[in-house]
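new request in #modeling-help
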Amino acid sequence: MAAADQVDPIHQFQIHPIIPLHIGGYDISFTNSALFMVVTIAVASAFLYMSTASRALIPGRLQSVSEMAYEFVGNMLRDAAGKQGMQFFPLVFSLFMFVLVANLIGLFPYFFTVTSHIIVTFTLAILVIGTVIVYGFAKHGLGFLKLFVPHGVPGYLMPLVVAIEVISFVSRPVSLSVRLFANMLAGHITLKVFSGFVVSLSALGAVGIAGSVLPLAMAVALTALELLVAFLQAYVFAVLTCMYLNDALHPSH
Amino acid sequence: MFVTSAFAQESAPATAEGDTHAGTAVPAEEHGTFPPFNAETFPSQILWLVITFGLFYLFLKRVVMPRIGGIIDVRNDRITQDLDHAARLKGEADAAVAAYEQELAEAKANANKIGQQASDAAKSEAESTRKKLEAELEKKLGEAEASIASIKAKAMKEVGTIAEDTTSAIVEALVGGKTDKAEISAAVKSATR
């Protein structure tokens, strides 16, 4: 079984409990997934907290990174949702940092990738859409439903357009979560498959070791690509969050 | 060999994981289903995600973001302040330059005026001196002319006497005897006329 696990690209996604907990028939054990969530927030918090500890007027390298992340997300939100949108800055910034750091930590060998589980990304997406719906109705009341009724559409087309708008709104949490989940999952599987080739080929002797250079190079290149994807998916998640929040602020588009 | 030892190392934690699976009596079919779609792990993941993300959100909102925002605000304030300060200093410098230039222009005008006055005064003084000198010279010239005229008259008068004396001497030498003074004087007068 151990030998099979070597090349089993799915093995890395398995969840196993570290501290088993069962309450009311639910398994809420502290798992490796939970451990890496804790690691993610610990790393992100520690980095942001310690890099800004000196509050230097002229920032050092680490403080620059923290400030860049802060202003990057801030500008993103301001561009997408305007000044009013800045009340959601903490939410978008935490989402961005959480997804980014979780993605980056997942790139380390033997580390678990929190965002490679659909339930995690879906929970985050539901948090976003839930915020949009709750804030939208709280701010605009039933006026929020204007989101589904675009201006300037002929009356006979209205039912069709409204149906399409509703479907697109409902599919948002799905697309938001599946995009992140699928990217991380696929990337890690590919990485594991190529790394598995290296191991299997090397077991074949001298010729195999020589041949394993190719998948090794591929694994290196993929690692670089995954680094890009890790950042890009965090960015995409944050930018879409900003756009959805803009809908909550200005439903009549 | 390097590769085989790495292989052996990697297989060790894998078997250890297999043991923990067996030890915690996780259902065997977990290995059969695709882990991300295994609904049995959902409650635990949701719960821990809510806990960790909630803590992360609160920490960022309460501690980190005010801090970074504060740092950036302080910096922006400082930059604005410095820019204002620089603008004020520039204004002061400009005013100083303008005042200097004005003073310079005034000084130039003054200098011109003083120079003009001095040259005017010098000119008028020179003019008056010249006039005085001219008048003096005129006067001296008149005097000289008068003295020349008197000397000339006197000389002319003496010329008559000399001529009479000479004539009487010549006549005495040629004719001999005493000459009549009145006769000679009349003769000289008629000759010189």
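bot summary: Helices of chain A lie at 2-6, 32-51, 61-81, 89-106, 118-140, 158-202, 206-211, 213-249.
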